[in-house]
Amino acid sequence: MTGLTGALTGSANGGPKGVVSSGRRPTLLAALGGAVWSLEQAVEDMLVGWTPNKIPDLSGRLALVTGGNSGIGLEILRKLAENCATVLMVTRDKERGEAAAEQVRSGLGPGCPGRVEVLVADLISLKEVDSLISQVRKRVAEHNKAAPAAAGGRGGRQAAAAGELSGVYGCET
């Protein structure tokens, strides 16, 4: 008997006695695994739409996250860094911010160029917001200088980042 039972067990006679190794078994299991994964992705797309697993590689990108030392902000920070973005985290408490940043850094793989930098500002104070804007401008300029070289000359979106910043709090670049 060489039907489905034989294909799954690897035995020409369909039983465990004298099991013969077969090249069909790994191929069948791989095909079944691939089909299950595709089905899972299709159901996820249909029911959920977007998930954090769909975030692409963000190498060469710069992100700004406020409140990144706990809660949803920390999870956003973690996911951006895991996807290799450079993340500027704004926090009111430097010690808590550094602890959260270190927690995220320790979870990054060795091949991931993602970085986390901590900026301190209380967003209720306009004076601190002005100081934060200056710090962010400086980081964006540094990032834009380094981005084309790091991205193999494809500066595109990063080169536009300084211009996009001009719409925030009346900044001029």
Q: Would you kindly provide a brief summary of this structure?
A:
The protein is mainly α. The chain has helices at residues 4-9, 24-47, 71-82, 94-106, 126-150, 156-165; strands at 62-66, 86-91, 115-120.
Structure description:
The protein has six helices and three strands. The chain is mainly α and 173 residues long. The protein folds into two domains: 4-47, no CATH class; 57-165, Rossmann fold (3-Layer(aba) Sandwich). It has a three-stranded parallel beta sheet with strand order 1-2-3, with helices on both faces. The longest helix has 25 residues, at 126-150. It starts with a helix and ends in an 8-residue tail after the last helix. It holds the Pfam family adh_short.
| Beta-strand percentage range | 5-15%
Shape, please? Answer: elongated
Helix content: 40-55%
Average pLDDT, to the nearest integer?
74
Instruction: Give a count of the beta strands, DSSP E runs of length 2 or more.
Output: 3
| Low-confidence runs of at least 5 consecutive residues | 1-13, 153-173
Say what the CATH topology of the largest domain is: Rossmann fold
Oligomeric description of these chains: single chain
The CATH architecture of the largest domain is 3-Layer(aba) Sandwich
Main sheet summary:
3 strands, parallel
* Straight-line distance between termini: 76 Å
So what's the CATH class of the largest domain? Answer: Alpha Beta
Give the number of helices: 6
Overall SS class: mainly alpha
Count of domains: 2
**CATH homologous superfamily annotation of the largest domain:** NAD(P)-binding Rossmann-like Domain
In sequence order, what are the helices and strands, one letter per element?
Answer: HHEHEHEHH
Strand order of the biggest β-sheet: 1-2-3
User: For the CA atoms, what is the radius of gyration?
Assistant: 25 Å
